[in-house]
UniProtKB/TrEMBL annotation:
Protein known as: Monoacylglycerol lipase
EC number: 3.1.1.23
Gene3D superfamilies recorded: alpha/beta hydrolase
Top-level EC class as recorded in UniProt: hydrolase
Coiled coil: none
Keywords: Hydrolase
Family: Belongs to the AB hydrolase superfamily.
Pfam families (UniProt xref): Hydrolase_4
Reactions catalysed: Hydrolyzes glycerol monoesters of long-chain fatty acids
Single GO term (MF): monoacylglycerol lipase activity
Domain Serine aminopeptidase S33: 33-267
Protein origin, superkingdom: Bacteria
Length: 287
Protein backbone atom coordinates (compact mmCIF):
# COMPACT_ATOMS: atom_id res chain seq x y z
CA UNK A 1 0.00 0.00 0.00
CA UNK A 2 1.41 3.39 -1.02
CA UNK A 3 2.35 5.83 1.73
CA UNK A 4 0.38 9.06 1.46
CA UNK A 5 2.36 12.27 1.73
CA UNK A 6 1.06 14.70 4.38
CA UNK A 7 -0.92 17.63 2.96
CA UNK A 8 1.02 20.81 2.23
CA UNK A 9 -0.32 24.02 3.76
CA UNK A 10 0.27 27.30 1.96
CA UNK A 11 0.05 30.93 3.04
CA UNK A 12 0.80 34.10 1.08
CA UNK A 13 1.07 37.67 2.21
CA UNK A 14 3.03 40.91 2.21
CA UNK A 15 5.51 42.35 4.69
CA UNK A 16 7.40 45.67 4.87
CA UNK A 17 11.10 45.62 4.14
CA UNK A 18 13.58 47.77 6.07
CA UNK A 19 12.59 50.83 4.02
CA UNK A 20 8.85 49.99 4.01
CA UNK A 21 8.89 48.58 0.46
CA UNK A 22 6.01 46.09 0.28
CA UNK A 23 7.30 42.59 -0.43
CA UNK A 24 5.31 39.48 -1.30
CA UNK A 25 6.15 36.17 0.35
CA UNK A 26 4.95 32.58 0.50
CA UNK A 27 5.10 30.01 3.29
CA UNK A 28 4.65 26.24 2.88
CA UNK A 29 4.52 23.67 5.68
CA UNK A 30 3.03 20.33 6.63
CA UNK A 31 1.78 18.75 9.85
CA UNK A 32 5.02 16.81 10.26
CA UNK A 33 7.27 17.73 13.22
CA UNK A 34 9.27 20.79 12.22
CA UNK A 35 12.88 20.04 11.28
CA UNK A 36 14.06 23.47 10.15
CA UNK A 37 13.14 26.57 8.19
CA UNK A 38 14.55 27.13 4.70
CA UNK A 39 14.30 30.69 3.35
CA UNK A 40 14.54 30.83 -0.46
CA UNK A 41 15.89 33.75 -2.51
CA UNK A 42 15.25 33.67 -6.27
CA UNK A 43 17.38 35.06 -9.08
CA UNK A 44 17.18 38.05 -11.41
CA UNK A 45 13.85 38.28 -13.21
CA UNK A 46 12.38 35.34 -11.31
CA UNK A 47 9.92 35.06 -8.41
CA UNK A 48 8.86 32.84 -5.53
CA UNK A 49 6.43 30.64 -7.49
CA UNK A 50 9.32 28.89 -9.22
CA UNK A 51 10.33 26.48 -6.46
CA UNK A 52 7.48 23.98 -6.53
CA UNK A 53 9.81 20.99 -6.86
CA UNK A 54 11.71 22.17 -3.79
CA UNK A 55 8.42 22.51 -1.91
CA UNK A 56 7.32 19.01 -2.90
CA UNK A 57 10.67 17.52 -1.85
CA UNK A 58 11.19 19.24 1.50
CA UNK A 59 7.87 20.25 3.03
CA UNK A 60 6.48 16.70 3.56
CA UNK A 61 9.72 15.91 5.44
CA UNK A 62 9.01 18.58 8.04
CA UNK A 63 10.65 21.67 6.59
CA UNK A 64 8.96 25.07 6.63
CA UNK A 65 9.78 26.90 3.41
CA UNK A 66 9.55 30.66 3.05
CA UNK A 67 10.22 32.46 -0.23
CA UNK A 68 9.96 36.14 -1.10
CA UNK A 69 9.67 38.13 -4.29
CA UNK A 70 12.59 40.53 -4.15
CA UNK A 71 11.85 44.21 -4.72
CA UNK A 72 11.25 44.88 -8.39
CA UNK A 73 10.23 41.26 -8.96
CA UNK A 74 7.08 39.19 -9.07
CA UNK A 75 4.28 40.60 -6.94
CA UNK A 76 6.49 42.88 -4.86
CA UNK A 77 6.73 46.64 -5.17
CA UNK A 78 9.57 48.38 -6.92
CA UNK A 79 10.80 49.22 -10.39
CA UNK A 80 11.54 46.09 -12.41
CA UNK A 81 15.22 45.22 -12.39
CA UNK A 82 16.32 48.27 -10.40
CA UNK A 83 17.93 48.85 -7.01
CA UNK A 84 19.66 51.89 -5.55
CA UNK A 85 22.22 49.73 -3.79
CA UNK A 86 22.81 46.04 -3.07
CA UNK A 87 22.07 46.61 0.60
CA UNK A 88 18.39 46.85 -0.34
CA UNK A 89 18.40 43.15 -1.27
CA UNK A 90 20.23 42.40 1.97
CA UNK A 91 17.58 44.35 3.84
CA UNK A 92 14.80 42.41 2.11
CA UNK A 93 16.30 39.11 3.25
CA UNK A 94 16.83 40.43 6.75
CA UNK A 95 13.23 41.63 6.98
CA UNK A 96 11.91 38.22 5.92
CA UNK A 97 14.18 36.49 8.44
CA UNK A 98 12.80 38.79 11.14
CA UNK A 99 9.28 37.68 10.22
CA UNK A 100 10.36 34.03 10.13
CA UNK A 101 12.02 34.14 13.54
CA UNK A 102 8.84 35.58 15.03
CA UNK A 103 6.71 32.82 13.53
CA UNK A 104 9.21 29.97 14.04
CA UNK A 105 11.35 31.04 17.01
CA UNK A 106 13.05 27.81 18.08
CA UNK A 107 14.22 26.00 14.95
CA UNK A 108 17.35 26.05 12.77
CA UNK A 109 17.37 28.51 9.87
CA UNK A 110 18.93 27.92 6.46
CA UNK A 111 19.20 30.31 3.52
CA UNK A 112 18.85 28.97 -0.03
CA UNK A 113 19.67 31.17 -3.02
CA UNK A 114 19.64 30.52 -6.75
CA UNK A 115 21.64 32.43 -9.40
CA UNK A 116 21.67 36.12 -8.42
CA UNK A 117 19.81 34.92 -5.33
CA UNK A 118 22.91 32.86 -4.59
CA UNK A 119 25.01 36.03 -4.59
CA UNK A 120 22.44 37.69 -2.31
CA UNK A 121 22.58 34.75 0.10
CA UNK A 122 26.39 34.65 0.13
CA UNK A 123 26.61 38.39 0.73
CA UNK A 124 24.05 38.19 3.55
CA UNK A 125 25.62 35.11 5.13
CA UNK A 126 29.11 36.63 5.14
CA UNK A 127 27.80 39.75 6.88
CA UNK A 128 25.17 38.22 9.19
CA UNK A 129 26.03 34.59 10.05
CA UNK A 130 24.68 34.68 13.58
CA UNK A 131 21.17 33.25 12.99
CA UNK A 132 22.08 30.73 10.33
CA UNK A 133 22.67 27.00 10.58
CA UNK A 134 23.87 26.87 6.98
CA UNK A 135 23.50 28.17 3.43
CA UNK A 136 22.67 26.50 0.12
CA UNK A 137 23.50 28.23 -3.14
CA UNK A 138 22.79 26.90 -6.62
CA UNK A 139 24.44 28.20 -9.78
CA UNK A 140 25.41 31.40 -7.97
CA UNK A 141 26.04 34.49 -10.07
CA UNK A 142 29.57 35.43 -9.09
CA UNK A 143 30.91 37.48 -11.97
CA UNK A 144 31.34 34.60 -14.44
CA UNK A 145 28.07 35.22 -16.28
CA UNK A 146 26.85 35.16 -19.86
CA UNK A 147 25.64 38.77 -20.09
CA UNK A 148 27.50 40.65 -22.82
CA UNK A 149 30.65 42.46 -21.58
CA UNK A 150 29.61 45.39 -23.78
CA UNK A 151 26.31 45.70 -21.90
CA UNK A 152 28.14 45.51 -18.57
CA UNK A 153 30.58 48.23 -19.67
CA UNK A 154 27.70 50.46 -20.77
CA UNK A 155 25.95 49.80 -17.46
CA UNK A 156 28.99 50.84 -15.43
CA UNK A 157 29.37 54.04 -17.44
CA UNK A 158 25.68 54.92 -17.06
CA UNK A 159 25.27 53.91 -13.43
CA UNK A 160 26.33 57.29 -12.06
CA UNK A 161 24.56 59.52 -14.58
CA UNK A 162 21.47 57.48 -15.48
CA UNK A 163 21.14 54.67 -12.92
CA UNK A 164 17.62 53.66 -13.97
CA UNK A 165 18.67 53.09 -17.59
CA UNK A 166 17.66 49.51 -18.34
CA UNK A 167 18.48 46.91 -20.96
CA UNK A 168 17.27 43.42 -21.71
CA UNK A 169 19.79 41.08 -20.12
CA UNK A 170 19.68 38.89 -23.22
CA UNK A 171 19.38 35.69 -21.18
CA UNK A 172 17.48 33.09 -23.21
CA UNK A 173 14.91 31.03 -21.30
CA UNK A 174 16.05 28.03 -23.34
CA UNK A 175 19.22 28.07 -21.24
CA UNK A 176 17.12 27.20 -18.21
CA UNK A 177 16.04 23.64 -18.94
CA UNK A 178 16.22 20.91 -21.56
CA UNK A 179 12.47 20.22 -21.61
CA UNK A 180 10.77 22.47 -24.22
CA UNK A 181 7.54 22.45 -22.18
CA UNK A 182 9.35 23.92 -19.19
CA UNK A 183 11.01 26.56 -21.36
CA UNK A 184 7.64 27.49 -22.83
CA UNK A 185 6.22 27.86 -19.31
CA UNK A 186 8.99 30.39 -18.64
CA UNK A 187 8.16 32.23 -21.86
CA UNK A 188 4.49 32.45 -20.90
CA UNK A 189 5.08 33.44 -17.27
CA UNK A 190 3.81 37.03 -16.81
CA UNK A 191 5.76 37.46 -13.58
CA UNK A 192 9.18 36.81 -15.11
CA UNK A 193 11.24 39.59 -16.66
CA UNK A 194 14.65 40.04 -18.31
CA UNK A 195 15.30 43.64 -17.31
CA UNK A 196 18.47 44.88 -15.66
CA UNK A 197 19.27 48.50 -14.84
CA UNK A 198 22.66 50.16 -15.03
CA UNK A 199 22.78 50.55 -11.25
CA UNK A 200 21.80 46.92 -10.64
CA UNK A 201 24.58 45.74 -12.96
CA UNK A 202 27.29 47.75 -11.23
CA UNK A 203 26.02 46.83 -7.76
CA UNK A 204 26.08 43.17 -8.79
CA UNK A 205 29.64 43.37 -10.13
CA UNK A 206 30.84 45.15 -6.99
CA UNK A 207 29.10 42.61 -4.76
CA UNK A 208 30.56 39.66 -6.67
CA UNK A 209 34.02 41.17 -6.18
CA UNK A 210 33.32 41.72 -2.46
CA UNK A 211 32.19 38.11 -2.02
CA UNK A 212 35.35 36.89 -3.72
CA UNK A 213 37.50 39.09 -1.50
CA UNK A 214 35.76 37.94 1.70
CA UNK A 215 35.19 34.26 0.87
CA UNK A 216 37.71 33.22 3.52
CA UNK A 217 35.49 34.85 6.17
CA UNK A 218 32.59 32.42 5.70
CA UNK A 219 31.56 31.01 9.09
CA UNK A 220 28.56 28.77 8.35
CA UNK A 221 28.34 25.40 6.54
CA UNK A 222 27.83 25.74 2.79
CA UNK A 223 26.29 23.50 0.14
CA UNK A 224 27.13 24.70 -3.37
CA UNK A 225 25.22 23.16 -6.29
CA UNK A 226 26.49 23.70 -9.82
CA UNK A 227 25.06 22.77 -13.21
CA UNK A 228 28.09 22.09 -15.38
CA UNK A 229 26.07 22.75 -18.56
CA UNK A 230 24.97 26.15 -17.21
CA UNK A 231 25.49 28.83 -19.85
CA UNK A 232 24.00 31.63 -17.71
CA UNK A 233 26.10 31.59 -14.52
CA UNK A 234 29.24 29.84 -15.62
CA UNK A 235 30.71 27.06 -13.43
CA UNK A 236 34.10 28.78 -13.15
CA UNK A 237 32.63 31.35 -10.75
CA UNK A 238 31.41 28.85 -8.17
CA UNK A 239 34.53 26.71 -8.54
CA UNK A 240 36.74 29.68 -7.73
CA UNK A 241 34.58 30.62 -4.75
CA UNK A 242 34.62 27.08 -3.40
CA UNK A 243 38.39 26.91 -3.64
CA UNK A 244 38.75 30.20 -1.74
CA UNK A 245 36.44 29.23 1.13
CA UNK A 246 38.49 27.96 4.08
CA UNK A 247 35.76 26.63 6.38
CA UNK A 248 36.02 22.83 6.62
CA UNK A 249 32.27 22.24 6.35
CA UNK A 250 31.81 23.02 2.67
CA UNK A 251 30.34 20.77 -0.02
CA UNK A 252 30.19 21.28 -3.79
CA UNK A 253 27.95 19.04 -5.90
CA UNK A 254 28.07 19.15 -9.69
CA UNK A 255 25.58 17.92 -12.29
CA UNK A 256 27.25 17.46 -15.68
CA UNK A 257 24.18 17.71 -17.94
CA UNK A 258 22.05 20.16 -15.98
CA UNK A 259 21.06 23.57 -17.32
CA UNK A 260 20.68 26.78 -15.31
CA UNK A 261 17.31 26.15 -13.62
CA UNK A 262 18.67 23.33 -11.53
CA UNK A 263 15.43 22.71 -9.58
CA UNK A 264 13.40 22.36 -12.80
CA UNK A 265 15.78 20.63 -15.19
CA UNK A 266 15.79 16.88 -15.64
CA UNK A 267 18.25 16.09 -12.85
CA UNK A 268 16.19 17.85 -10.19
CA UNK A 269 15.27 14.67 -8.24
CA UNK A 270 18.97 13.96 -7.68
CA UNK A 271 19.66 17.60 -6.84
CA UNK A 272 16.89 17.71 -4.25
CA UNK A 273 17.93 14.37 -2.77
CA UNK A 274 21.37 15.89 -2.24
CA UNK A 275 19.81 19.00 -0.67
CA UNK A 276 17.66 16.98 1.70
CA UNK A 277 20.56 14.74 2.74
CA UNK A 278 22.77 17.75 3.43
CA UNK A 279 20.05 19.44 5.48
CA UNK A 280 19.54 16.31 7.55
CA UNK A 281 23.27 16.24 8.28
CA UNK A 282 23.24 19.86 9.46
CA UNK A 283 20.24 19.91 11.78
CA UNK A 284 21.34 19.85 15.43
CA UNK A 285 20.55 16.50 17.01
CA UNK A 286 18.52 18.11 19.79
CA UNK A 287 15.89 19.20 17.24
Amino acid sequence: MATLEPPIHHHTGYFPSHDQTSLYYQHWWSDQPTQAVVVIVHGLGAHSDLFQNVVAALVPAGYHLYALDLRGHGRSSGRRGYINQWGEFRGDVGALLALVTQEQPTVPYFLMGHSVGGAIVLDYTLRHPELLQGAIVSNPALGAISISPVKLTIARLLSQIWPTFSLNTGVDNAAGARDPAIVESYNQDPLRHTIGSARLATEFLDTAAWIDEHATDLQVPLLLLQSEADSVTLPQGSERLFDRITIADKTRKTYPESYHEIYDDQDYPTVLQDVRQWLEQHIPQSI
